[in-house]
Amino acid sequence: MLAGCEGLTPPADGGGPSGSGVPTAGDGRAVNPLDNPDGTKPGLAAITSTEDKARARALIGKVETKGRGPRTGYERDKFGYAWMDSAPADVPFARNGCDSRNDLLKRDGEDLRFRSGSDCVVMALTLHDPYTGKVIEWTKSRATEVQIDHVMPLSYDWQMGASRWTEDKREAIANDPLNLVPVDGRTNSSKGDSGPASWLPPNKRIRCAYSVRFAQVSLKYELPVTAADKRMMLEQCGG
């Protein structure tokens, strides 16, 4: 896993619709994260207006910073098993009879098809992937083609203070739709536990929205980010 970096050289594009020939999908039903503070609305729409970019910088400016701590002791299971439906009841979608992965597929997917007799288990969908700008026609037989990204990675959370949290709070951030986005699996795998200073979505037009969502999670859970990550986040929104 990547450990982050302290420089401010923007992360490599890694392909995507900003000039690599990959067709742009548009935002589909995606909502501007500034208008979706609890993460219950679909997707991650681009932030484009001057006014919204100013709002974005103001939000990111509230994020606290500190150095990244050690990864010692981190295990995925310390944030609960993936994907659970038993996160604390104040987490949106929790305890609704459907696990958090399927909740997120239903939130962001279009043309949903479910397992026979179920209104939970998604078998196929169309996804407008914000990270690459591609349209993905996904089926459960190719499950890893779409992965659920923790915008603020769990290992990053651990290093920034979650190692001292209660089990309930760790389960909350791991299953909170504010911190979860269905995306292209290969692109998600390339992210590891990186912060914004060392990884940003290949789709340049979504980078301010991604930075806002990272900040929203940070503020909700009172988790700082590194100074380099905060500077990169501000830069994506014109700061």
Automatic annotation (TrEMBL):
InterPro entries listed in its UniProt record: GmrSD_C
Keywords assigned by UniProt, alphabetized: Endonuclease, Hydrolase, Nuclease
Ranges for region Disordered: 1-47, 179-198
Top-rank lineage group of the source organism: Bacteria
Annotated GmrSD restriction endonucleases C-terminal domain residues: 100-235
Tagged with keyword Cell inner membrane: no
GO molecular function (one): endonuclease activity
The name this protein goes by in its record: HNH endonuclease family protein
Native source organism of the sequence: Streptomyces coeruleofuscus
